[in-house]
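Q: A reviewer asked whether we had any structural model of the full assembly, not just the individual parts. We don't, so I'm hoping you can provide one. Inputs are below.
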Amino acid sequence: MKFKVALLVIAAILILVGAVAASGVPLSVAGESIWRGCFGSSRSVSGLLREVVPFVMLGSAVFLALRAGLFNIGADGQFLVGALTSATVALKVPNFGGLILGLLGGIVAGALWAFPAGWIRAYRGGHEVITTIMLNNIAALLATSMVSGPIKDPSQESTTTAILANATWLPMMSFGEVKISLALPVAVFGVIGFAYWLRRSVKGFELEATGANAGAATFAGIEVKSVQLRAMVASGAVAGLTGAIQVLAFEHRFYSNFSPGYGFDALGVALLAGASPLGILPAALGFGILSKSATALSIEGIPKGITTLIVGLLIVILAAMRYRRERTSG
Amino acid sequence: MDSLFLVLKSTVTLSAPLLLAAMAGYTSERTGVINIALEGKMLAGCLAAGLVGILSGSAVLGVLAGVTAAVLMSLLHWLLTQSYSIDHIVSGMAVNAVSFGATSFLYKNYTDPSKVTETPTLPLPAYYAIAFVVPVALAWVSSRTRFGLRLRAVGGDPEKSRSMGLNPGAVRFKSLLLTGLFCGLSGTLIVSNTGYFTDGMTAGRGFIALAALIIGSWRPIPTMIACIAFGFLEALQLQLQGTRLAGAEIPRELWNVLPYLATVIALAGFVGKSRAPAGLGKP
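A: Here is a predicted structure for the entire assembly that you could use as a starting point for your response.
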C-alpha cells in the first residue's frame, strides 16, 4: 500500500511540474514570486493571515462533522447564506448592533441551512452528501437572486451590495505594520477549545464514538441520531459564522460569486488536519499560502486554476494515506 | 400554438445533456459507486472537445477527445475507489476539483483570446437521438442481459456478489467506462451548443442529473421522465421570461431552484421512498 501511495505522490508531482512547464514560467521566477506574495512585505503577511481565517473556520466546520462520521459538503452553501444574512442585517442596522446581529444572523442562517441535511441523514436515511450538494446549489441561486435584486446597490453596475457602515466592521488589530483581524485569534482559540472539548468532554466523546462506529455507539447507549443531527447543525453554524466574518471583517459587502470554491478547500483542510483539531491550524496556514501563491503566480501568467488542481491532487493523496474504506471480512 | 412547439423543442434540447449525464450516473451508482463527480467528468469532456475541435478543425476528433477525457476521469474515479479504496465521496470531490482546476488552467493556457473561433460540431439531432434512446436501452440491458444483471447484483450487495464468483472491481470498471462515455457525450453536446469552452460551463447540470437519478429511484425510465421534466421546466422558464404574474416578474432563480428543492424533498421521503442501491459506497 505504501508503494501505491508513493506512486500517487509521484504522479501528482509530475502533473504539477508539467503544468508549470506548460505555462512557460521558469521555476525560479515562480518560487520567488510565491515568496514575495506570501512573506515579502508586512502587507503580504497581513494578506496571508487574512486568507487563513476562513480556512481555519471552514476547516473546523467540516472536521467537526467528519468526526461524527458525516461529510459536510455543504460548507460552501452554509458559508454563503451566512454571509448573505449578515450583509443584509448589517445593511439594515448600520451601527454596532448590526455587527452583533450580523454575526448572530450568520450563525443562525448556517445552522438552519445545515439542519435539513442532518435531519434527513439521521431520521430519514437520506445521504447527507446529496442533500448538502442540493442545498449548496439552492444557496448559490438564493444569493444570486438577492444580490441582483433586493439588496443590490442601485448605483453600482456590478451585482454587489453597498459598502457596509463603518460601525458594523469587525475591528482590526495592528502589530507594527502587520494588520490582523480580531477574528484570527478568536478562530485560533476556538480551535484549541474545540480540541479540548473533543478530548475531555462527554459530548465530545459521544461525537467521536458516533463517528468511529455508529452501531457500537448505539449499544453503548449514545443517542446516535441526535448526535448526528447536532453535529451537522453545529458544523453549519460555524460555516455560517465564517461567512458573516468574511463580510463583517474583510469584504464589508456581499457580491455575486462570493465563495471562491471554499467547499473543496474546507474538505482539504479537514483531511490534512489528521486526527486532532489542532492539526487544522497548520493545515489552514498551508492552504492560505497556497491561495496567496496562486494570486502571485497569476500575475506571472500561470492561470489560477492550478490551485484547484493542486487541492484535488492533495485530497487524493491524503485520502489514500488515511481516509480509506477498507473491505471488512464477512 | 407556436410557443407550445417552441417549448417542446427546447425541452428536447435542454433535457438531452441531462439525460446523458443521468444515465452516466445510473451505470455508476447501480454498481454501487457513488458518483458526485458527474459534473467534473462532463467539464473535462467539454474542454477536450472544445479545445481539440478548434485546434484540429475536425468535429469527429473533437468528439473523440471529449469522450476520451471524460472516460479517463471516470477511470481515475474507478482507480481511486476500487484500487486505492478511497471513500467514494472524497474521490468524487477530488475528481471534481482536479477537473475544475485542470480545465480552467488548460483553457487559459492554450486559448488565444484574440482569435475566437467556434469548434466544429456533429449534427445536434444525432446527440438528441442518442440521449433519448440510451435510457430505454439501459432499461432493457439492466433487466434482460447478463451484464445488466451483474451490474445490479454488484450494486445490490458487493460482498454477496463476490461470494457468487463475480469480481465487483471488474464489473465496476465496465460500468465506469460507460459512465465516462455518457459524460463525455453530454459534455461534448454542451460545448457544441455554445461553440467554445468557458470556465465551469456545465453550470451544475451534473448535479441536476444526479437529482433526476434520485427522484427516479435509480431506475432508467423514471429517471428519464425526471430529466425531461427538468428540461421542460427550464424551457418553460425561457418562454415565460419577462412575463408577469400578479404584477411581479418571477425571478429566474425561482425556477432553477425547483430540481434541487424537489430532490431534498424526495430525500426526506415525503413523496414515496426513493430506493438507493443497497451497496452504494461499499467496497
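A: Points you may want to mention in the reply: Residues 96-124 of chain A form the longest helix (29 residues). The mean pLDDT of chain A is 90.
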